[in-house]
Amino acid sequence: MNSIAKSLLKSVKHGRAAWLRSSSARSGKQPLRKLVLGIETSCDDTGAAVVDGAGNVLGEALHCQKEVHLQAGGIIPVVAQQLHRENIEQVVKEALSVSGVSVRELAAIATTVKPGLALSLEVGLQYSLNLVSRYQKPFIPIHHMEAHALTVRLTHHVEFPFLVLLLSGGHCILAVAQGVSDFLLLGQSIDIAPGDMLDKVARRLSLRKHPECHSMAGGKAIEHLAQTGNRQQHTFRLPMQQYRNCDFSFSGLQNLVNKAIIQKEKEEGIQEGEILSCVKDIAAAVQHAVAVHIIQRTYRAMLFCTKNKILSSKNATLVVSGGVASNQYIRKGLQTLADANDFAFLCPPPRLCTDNGVMIAWNGIERLRAGLGVLHSTDGIRYEPKAPLGIDISKQVEEDSIKVPKLKKKIRWLAS
Fold it and tell me: Strand 391-392 vs strand 182-188: parallel, antiparallel, or unpaired?
């Protein structure tokens, strides 16, 4: 482990990593006896929760590594792994304690096994398999993106099928959820995810040095500064305009932004690492470009699904989840798009959009009910850092070559 990693871990032991805990009060009635413990360690948060068959969150705990990784300017996998190892037992005990449930009372243990950081996934899987072996409980391996997609069914009454857009630091996916374990993949990012791109732009702009943003993650800092910036001062060419599919690309946009930053630094006579006077305008323009790119691809997905009768044109739903879904500017644009196309628009609450144990436990409940992937033998179970979601029909989307109407006519928000 290098010196940076060691110093970061040392800072954690001095209490700089925050505990985030919340629990649902238990009612006087006995909960349904279908109880699932969910464990999440796919990236940089250690989460656990107990959820019952009625969707009540009986107890949860989350150890957040954000501050540690902010110091490093990004996630260092070996640091994330070590923090998971140090905290997983306490997190699980906390969730069980708050819920008032013992491991013996659980119907099953559900754990993220794919996709994610290999070193992080390994910690959660190993801990879970030890619990499963010790208490002889069924094991439910969970696909991280499936869990994000189904979280909305914990918080809202949503029937299958529905269109789901998953936006995060590691993924950007458009899919149709047809069932608990039945997805049609319409498109995904061909390079980096929007959250990753916004974080990288924030680092290039040195936003941690900005007085308004020193404690904010990159994407949050961009969103905050964009609120008082003028996006019309900079125009960035949108990605993939020539491709009539539902895939995304953000690395080219990031390169364009970096070139604009270099040019502005030259004009202002400052070095990299200093704050540009126009930083708020750049933040606003970048956020807008990301939002419009996402909206355009989602619009095509809506048109494709209604044209091919995958979704009904009368009661279709767009669900948006993942960490970037908490960006209010992007969310507002997607809400306006949904309204203009007669789609219901649903998002889980912000705390359930980011990684957490609740969504894993709920996915376990959904699979337990449906009798899908509930294992009584864990032989051969492995974690998978990369794992597709569902059946890929993106080529069919491209073959349909649906032209998206000009958005400004359809969505006034884009012209404002």
Answer: parallel
Convert the pLDDT of each residue in 172-182 to its tens digit: 999 999 999 99
- Residue 385: strand, helix, or coil: coil
E-strand ranges in 41-105 read 45-52, 57-64
Instruction: Say how far apart CA 317 and CA 299 lie, in whole Å.
Output: 13
Burial code (b: 16+ CB inside 10 Å, e: under 16) for 95-107 equals: bbebbebebeebb
Which residue intervals of 136-193 are DSSP H helices? 144-150, 152-155
Q: Largest Cα–Cα distance of the chain, in whole Å?
A: 68
Q: State pLDDT tens for residues 276-307.
A: 999 999 999 999 999 999 999 999 999 999 99
Distances (CA, A) of 274 to 201, 234, 265, 400: 14, 19, 9, 47
Q: Is the dihedral of CA 21, 22, 25, 26 positive or negative?
A: negative
- For strands 172-179 and 182-188, give the pairing: antiparallel
Q: Mapping DSSP to helix (H, G, I), strand (E, B) and coil, where does residue 59 land?
A: strand
- 192 contact partners, CB below 8 Å, separation of at least 6: 200, 250, 251, 254
Could you check whether the bond before residue 348 is cis, i.e. omega within 30 degrees of 0? no
pTM (predicted TM-score): 0.89
The b/e string for 373-383 (b: 16+ C-beta within 10 A; e otherwise) is: bbeeeeeeeeb
Q: Provide the 3-class DSSP secondary structure of residue 195.
A: helix
**Separation between Cα atoms, residue 187 and residue 398, nearest integer Å:** 10
Nearest CA to 183 among 393, 1, 398? Answer: 393
Look at residue 412 in the predicted model and tell me its pLDDT.
Answer: 55
How many Å apart are CA 355 and CA 344, to the nearest integer? 24
Q: How many angstroms separate the first and last alpha carbons of the chain? A: 50
Contact indicator for 250, 193 with CB cutoff of 8 Å: yes
- CA angle, 217 as apex, 212 and 223 as ends, to 5°? 65
**What CA–CA distance (Å, rounded) separates 59 from 350?**
18
Phi, psi of 50 (to 5 degrees): -115, 125
